[in-house]
Amino acid sequence: MDIPPLAGKIAVLSLGALPLSYALNHVSALSYPLGVVLMSALILGLFFLAIYSLSRGDIYYDPLYAVFAVFAFTSVVDLLIALQEDGYTSGFMEFYTKEGEPYLRTAHGIFICYWDGIVHYLLYLAMAGAIRKRKRYRNLGLYWLGSFIMSILVFLPGNILGKYSSETRPAFFLTIPYVLVPCWAGLRVFNQTQAPTCCTSNMVQEEQRKGLLQRPVDLGLIIYLVFAAFFTLFRGLVVLDCPMDACFVYIYQYEPYLRDPVAYPKVQMLANMFYVLPFYGLAAYALIFPGCSWLPDWTLVFAGAIGQAQFSHMGASMHLRTPFTYRVPEDAWTCFFVSNLLYALGPQLLACRCLWWPAFFLRPPPGSPAHHKKQH
């Protein structure tokens, strides 16, 4: 997969968030929740108009260019919030975390901001750069889509159901377009044509004739998926307060953050159990039976989702903003870190396998033994 050049114009414009947020932090009108939401909407609207006037041709070619430009700006804002809450900067976004979205000051909120400010920001610049160069960015878009959806899927219910539910401010309604626009963007990304593969019909037939024992990488991935599925189910049962001694031992010794009343970890584990767990079963099936052409796309979506989820979960579990009783004990750091890191890396390796050697997942050509096997 070729990585397109980053969009320099959007990078320069998005960095305007630094002086702008510093100036707005000293505006007295922004000490009120309604003032925060109105000013935020105004700034985003003006930023969109600036992008439209400067890059009209790119937007006509692909409207997602404007979406990625605006989201790149918000990513810089999120990075400022995270750096400020961790004490690396000051004087930038105090007004927003105080009167706009106070739940961003939680450990989970801080790490969501870090991920958005670094990973999503680079993805936005790369995808916008691809549009400027008229190149494909479907794979990057699918990874971003999974990451973004998982972030929203956990963050919004966690805000509504957790201990910060009583502190919902008008700025919360800015998340409505922040959810709807990526849904539209995701449909456009999925509808883009796939990049042509270099696999010939003979290569596809030869690869799909191999048994599982002749494909040691796939065998290893299936073994990983089985263990990951059990790990996902186990943590889901922990969150559901399943009366098992092993659950209580695990939660108190290795992941006490699952008991944190902020609700984000509980929502995260339930999302894993209801969405990630079925995907692991389907992925294992696709690694056994050839011709499951849907797997490469969905591995990218779930790789982004699990990468974002594990980054936020691992970071928040050890962050100082998490109360001491819910932080991972120091004597359990190694076990916690290794198990959760493996849980995050597996889907990334699965996505790489599907992208680099896709022949096994391509639809078998008519007349091949694999084709007849799929028909019957």
UniProtKB/TrEMBL annotation:
Subcellular compartments: Endomembrane system
Molecular function GO terms recorded: identical protein binding
Main location as per UniProt: membrane
Transmembrane segments: 33-52, 64-83, 103-128, 140-158, 170-187, 219-240, 269-288
Protein name, per record: Transmembrane 6 superfamily member 2
Annotated InterPro entries: EXPERA (IPR033118), TM6SF1-like (IPR047195), TM_Tm6sf1/2 (IPR059044)
EXPERA domain boundaries: 61-186, 217-351
Organism of provenance: Camelus dromedarius
GO terms (BP aspect): lipid homeostasis; regulation of lipid metabolic process
